[in-house]
Amino acid sequence: MTTDTSHFIGLRFMRLGMLALAIGMFFGVIGGFQFLFPEFLQELLFTKTRPMHVSMVVSWIFLVAIGGIYFYLPRQCNMPLFSATLANWHFWIFLITGLAIIACYLSGKFGGREYFEFPPILSLPIFLMWILFGINYFKTVRQDKESWPVYYWMWGTGIVFFFLTYAESHLYLIPYFRENMVREIMVQWKSYGALTGSWNMLVYGTALFLAARISGCEKYARSKMAFGLYFLGLFNLMFGWAHHTYFVPSDTWIRSFAYLVSMTELYIFGKILWDWRSSLEDWQKGRHCNAYRFLIAADIWVFVNLGLALIISVPLFNMFTHGTHITVAHAMGSTIGINTMILLASVFYVIREELPEEVHAQCSPQLRVGYWTVNISLAVFFTALVLAGVGKGLYDGSSFQEMMTNIRPFLLVFTISGVTLMIGMWIILWHGFRLMGQIISPNKTPAPAGVAEPGPA
Amino acid sequence: MGDANINYRFAFGTLCVAFVFYSATVYTNGTAATHGEPMSDAARSGQQLFQENNCIACHQFYGLGGYMGPDLTNVISNRGEAYSRAFITAGTASMPNFGFDEEEVTAIVAFLAFVDQTGTYPPSNYEVHWTGNILQDDDPR
Lengths: 457, 141
Hints:
The structure holds two protein chains of two kinds. Chain A is mainly α. Chain A contains 17 helices and no strands. By secondary structure, chain B is mainly alpha-helical.
């Protein structure tokens, strides 16, 4: 039994991430109502609620993915962190920078870049955080002298490429980029595509780590298929962004190349999870019931999003779907259906591993309610957005207001399902936040470090 | 170190080198679109105001941005400067009045006029290639 608590820093990241998601969804719901009723909450304009929602939800992804890495390396991979102090610095810089960003949004101080709407000076501590994280990560995993499983590669790649492409997203500060609108837009979306690919590396790496640990078998994480996925993901991260910009007047080859690259990674990722699931014994599914079902939900959403992604990657269809709510459906389906489900699986895997069995039920009823509420709401939410997008894409008049009136019923359904989605997620998050707090609690005796004991639960 | 690991490192390095060359091309020739006029001082100020007020939260250029308001890529040629000026000055039922003064409104209109000359969105004159690609006749590439 260990008394080392350096892995608690990972749990603090994860708990902060759960808090960020709970608040971020609340701002998303406010934004949904402002879409329907523009005069709603004029004191807090949509120009503020949207970045609050986006930044909080993106923070959730990073915090839980980063927290998982800080937790799994010392606790499950038997590699003490190179520096717990650096990890603590990372946490506090993240928190303080996040609070500064919120203050900027609420006081109306914007940098005005979509998704990163805060003043660019606040990017400096963000760069610093990733340097600290990178040093800590690579110095830690260097302890493993064997050939690395694919999730080490994915986590490392996510860290390096986030840093590089986040830097790329700031090239607009240089007049050469900013004063050519085509270059400005193209480079911005090139960097955003790669940024998304970078956080997908962190999240998909987590999914493969969980798959390996739940099954108690590392073969998937070292298989050629897994590395095939990794390199395809890396290829997409680097070159697969331009379907966002088919109609920006850049060189034609950029668009054609992007069309060829499109979305092949999701197929292989879905196949790996599918194959992994069929290989599990019943006791393995039962022992990690909560984590398992979130991974299954992620797998189903992979296939739903894959279908949509393939359609919108064809320029002919993209002409009708681009700039419509179908793009939002794709973004939300990926962020909630895939990334969030994987990260929730990570949260409940940690809880199952760390808490004594008598503290929690293996498949808790409250969690089941939250799980189904979230997934059913997400299905309605996703469908409403697609239908709103179809309405906008097929509208051939010239009045924006008339188009918005036409699609209003779909936006109403979208907003209502957003409310139920938020409530379902709050149930799950409260459950996870509370139980994870028990792990950190000084009254709790830590469970032994390492992987699950074999045999039926 | 196993053979597989060496192969993986080689593949990683090759992709990184390709990425560097690709990025350099996108930064230069790939985005060297024809502009009618270079950006004026007024347009530069308008771009700054557009960002400081987070207009992209609701509006789009080339379909990229928020969906609460209309796409502004060609608002100047489609609706005219006077129309745009009136909206920016007074706001609408769904867009608040941001309190811009005369000079600021002129700057934002200059920025929108600068964007307008870079291309056409959505495409109006185009052909569909058999591969599903769209070949536009009305952009300056």
